[in-house]
Amino acid sequence: GRNRGGADGEGESRPCAMGGGGHRGGSSERCSRRRAAVLSACVAVVCIGLLPFAQASCQTPITPEEAFSCTAADASYFKAHLPDTWWTATNPPNQYVPGLSFIKNYYSCCRFCIWSFDFPPSAPVVAMHGPTLDCVSFKTDFTAFDQDKTLSLNQTEMGFYLAQPPNDYLIANKILDGASVFRQADIDGSGAISLEEFLLLRHFWAVVHTVKTGPLSAAEDGRPIASGPLGGLYLDQGMVQAFFTVANSMNIETYLVQNPPWDTSLTREPVAEELSETLLSFDIDGSTRISLEEHYFRVFADRNGDGWLSKDEYYLSLYKKTNPAGKPDNPYLFPINFILHDWDNDERITYLERKFVAADVNQDAELTREEWVKGDFPNQYGPFDGHSMSADLGKEPTINTVRFFFYTIFHECATQGLIEYRSSLVASPWSRSCILDVLIDHNPPFVNAQLNTTAECGGGVLFCNTVNGTQDAHPGTHHCTSDYDCANGRGCTYFGFCHKQEEMEPVGAIPRWRRWMNNKPPSGYTLDVMKEAMSRLKYNYTLTVKEDLRLDDALAPMPLEGTKKKQGRPPLTLVLTSAFEQLRYTAKDSNPINVTRYACTSSLWPSDGFVVVVRTTPDILSNQMGMWYMLGSASFVNFVAVFFFFVLVMGHFFWFFERTLNEDHFRGFYAEGVMDGLWFAMVTVTTVGYGDKVCLTGFGRFFGAFWMLFGLICFGLFGGQVVTQLGEMQQAANIQNVDQIFGLNVGVLAKAYPGELSSIYGFQAREYDTVKAAADAVKRKDIPAMIMPH
């Protein structure tokens, strides 16, 4: 299938060009003939338009079997040549095609012989060396396992493969479930594993054969890995990272033993950012687990890499293509299997649609709780109970295609937000292009809204004129974009029609309830909290206040009936209730406040339930004013008093020891000599040191040295206290929120658990019995602020 000029044409031509190696006994004349032949071949290739040298069936397979038809000769050729030379081996070197791109575009039938996680994007590193990465041996193993020669493996024959290491170890330690492996490998649901399905499984599970380990992440409900999602048949981050390391080492070893050695810089391990991008691109559903279905959908089924399957791509895949009668499906007249996957009728199959079909073991178009868990639907996108239908007449809750449609919307918006904000699902990312329709109950004083209860337009009228509120004979001509476009309190629906409060659109429509009536926005503490949260999370939302809010209002409405395609993406509904105990305090309330009944989150709003009260007109504090405040403060007066007391004591000491032997500097008369000692003590402790008086005795010099060190320490501490005091005064004069009261003296009610509050916010609590007492302290400037519940 490849025009290489003979079995070893490439191998024979290179020694002539390099002047050594290979057939070293060849004459220069023979080399010249070979060079001429190679040049003629290159010219011929140029003349025919640089056509690829692959067979048409390998370059563009027209059957699922051809997609896995790589021959042993082709696989051996790729192993014997550097991936960067696969294109230039038979094409002019004026164009560069990375090895993985070459396989995808010109030799896709050998894609299952190549392992790559698409990094770096410019020229992805590929791996295909080592005993565990030998696609030729996969077919040999299949032939050995197929003992009944039916060209397929039943569960017993599949057990021969599962009994090999490391599968036997994983099964014995409840890390891998053999039945789940068989069911997932049976892509078309035929009850047997074909050769192509086995090659796909071996390509996916070669990572485990290479790193000799299985997944380490336990199931979310605590069950063994084999009993959890996918039965343990998945790759997690640790396995992918280990495969990078081992495969890179095998590549380097292979590159070095080549003659001449290949460039080892062309293979490397990814950095942390590249590893993260790899996992993000291969983990389509955001479950942190790469499943066999994800692997096949992304690497093999989605041939053009646009993220979904067209009808042509579906019927070139290994997915089911037989009708209930067992006959081949007709992809043109009635593509029943494509329709069963494409249940939103948008002419394409997304991975989540395929995932729903694969997880539906009993094929009843509904997912049970066990199918949901086994199918690996992560709780980050909503738990099973949040998406399922309520149990009816003893039947367990299930998720049908209609409710799963809204799961896909939530999944799409959340994954878009994950990419936009570069954060995990735990941080609640939500794409700003997606709308949340927030329903909240009318519950004063938490939510105050003026609702419309009148019946304009007469009874039973669904559509009203946007100008005069009368019945509209042609509602389709009056569209609205918001509630403000609708007259007399009508609400604007999702599809742009005005309707009354209690009425809906025609049967099958997806309604969007009005946000509020009479164009008067609602207010209240609960709404303030919600708006603050939505603002910080950058959510795009609409708000609706209802008189009798029920959780049923959040149920996913039915999509439009009788239409071929979805009419856009409807907003998801979020229900908020305000039935909680808010922490309140009034002057007449004599009962202690029970803060244990109030729960708040420090990550969203640290000041929930409390308000920081400061003076309305805080002091404008400059450095000069701060210094004057310091000079008049009690701490400064205390410092001066203690300082002069020590000066007085040390002045007497210096006079007593120096008066007899040093009368020139310390006179003998008490009144005169003590003044000399006080002067010397003051000059020395302040480190001025005029030098007009000095100590001559041993005791005098000893105390003089001590006194100088004391002065350095004393004035150093005093200077630090001045800076600290000025900083606290500046902080107290500029309190804006609860984060700025750390370290300050703050007033707290004695009944409001001041110890707990001070430990949370880091302030020094001053306890007061009443709000008035604390407020008076703030007015007198005894404390800069007080924390009060509201």
What low-confidence regions span 5 or more consecutive residues with pLDDT below 50? 1-54, 452-478, 500-519, 556-567, 579-608
Q: Structural class of the secondary elements?
A: alpha/beta
Mean pLDDT: 75
User: What integer value in Å does the Rg equal?
Assistant: 40 Å
Oligomer: single chain
Give the fraction of residues assigned to helices: 25-40%
What does the overall shape look like? elongated
Please give the alpha-carbon distance between the first and last residues: 81 Å
What's the β-strand tally?
A: 15
User: What's the helix count?
Assistant: 26
The strand order across the widest sheet is 12-15-13-14
Largest sheet: 4 strands, mixed
Strand content: 5-15%
Helix/strand layout:
Layout: H1 9-18, H2 28-47, H3 56-59, H4 72-80, H5 99-106, H6 135-145, E1 152-153, H7 155-162, H8 167-172, H9 178-185, E2 193-194, H10 195-211, E3 234-235, H11 237-257, H12 272-282, E4 290-291, H13 292-301, H14 311-315, H15 336-341, H16 351-359, E5 366-367, H17 369-374, H18 384-387, E6 399-400, H19 401-421, E7 435-441, E8 491-492, E9 498-499, H20 525-537, E10 540-546, E11 572-576, E12 610-614, H21 623-631, H22 634-658, H23 670-685, H24 698-732, E13 745-749, H25 754-761, E14 764-768, H26 771-779, E15 785-789
Parallel strand pairs: 7-10, 7-11, 13-14, 13-15
Antiparallel strand pairs: 1-2, 3-4, 5-6, 8-9, 12-15
Helix pairs in contact: 6-10, 10-11, 21-24, 22-23, 22-24
